[in-house]
């Protein structure tokens, strides 16, 4: 919708956008103005937009993976091809994700607009920033979230935090798209903080950030999270083009082995701190085996890869049991 002329606009428009020439705005910017003016309350408008954006993008991005999981043709790219999520598992996962969204995200989201404005973030204002302005900001948010997640994720693998919080997310040793946010509400809050703190801290120090940049960042972050849990590695997957990108191939090993690969978007923190040693050893064994078995049948190669995966998963089950036992012991001492 585009406002026909200034005289037909509600008075709120003149209060929020004094001197703004609608004709000079892009179509998207005009819709942005219409959204805020129509709702009439910036806090409500921002809250609704934020919640709807998250739900539409998260579930919208998950649907293609649900379809792919139902089609045998794609099994050749499935990282753990014998573990296909059932519709019952998909539905159970959906219910848990929605519970977290409505009990954690929805109540807190109404604080976003007041907090953002207090820090100097532009929300309802137009025009939008240029791509040249947004790109480096979004990269910084990726960098901050990746390190935050790397540290917080390792903490969630220890003691009481694993036993009572993170264990839920590790229910599936072969993750699927919807499972990206299949987690305890406390984990959703802890790891979600890494997504929103980056923009808020940046805005605090620069007072130069538009919420449309934050929304763009959140869309990309959701794509990254869902895709990393998809369980598929295609020749065109981003990590095959950008070597330091994590992707599903990197994160799938974390679910299979329980340890290693704690970061989200990039591989460098795990490499620097040595928390990818088992992963790299596993990949080296797979590569060496394929080279040694180049004349073997496809079935023999497949069986060998399955044997390696079973060994890694068995070690992961043992490591998980040890982490859980430490959690029980620590909880007992606290009592």
Number of domains: 1
Assembly level: single chain
Count of β-strands: 0
Overall pLDDT score: 91
What does this structure look like?
The protein is mainly α. It has one domain. The chain is 65% helix and 0% strand. The chain has helices spanning 11-16, 27-39, 42-69, 87-109, 112-118, 131-155, 159-164, 185-206, 211-228, 247-257, 268-272, 277-292, 298-334. The radius of gyration is 23 Å and the shape is elongated. Residues 1-8 have low confidence and may be disordered. Residues 139-275 form the Fatty acid hydroxylase domain. One of its GO terms (molecular function) is iron ion binding. Keywords: Coiled coil, Membrane, Transmembrane, Transmembrane helix. One of its GO terms (biological process) is lipid biosynthetic process.
Question: What would a concise description of this structure say?
Answer:
This protein has 335 residues and is an all-alpha fold. It contains 13 helices and no strands.
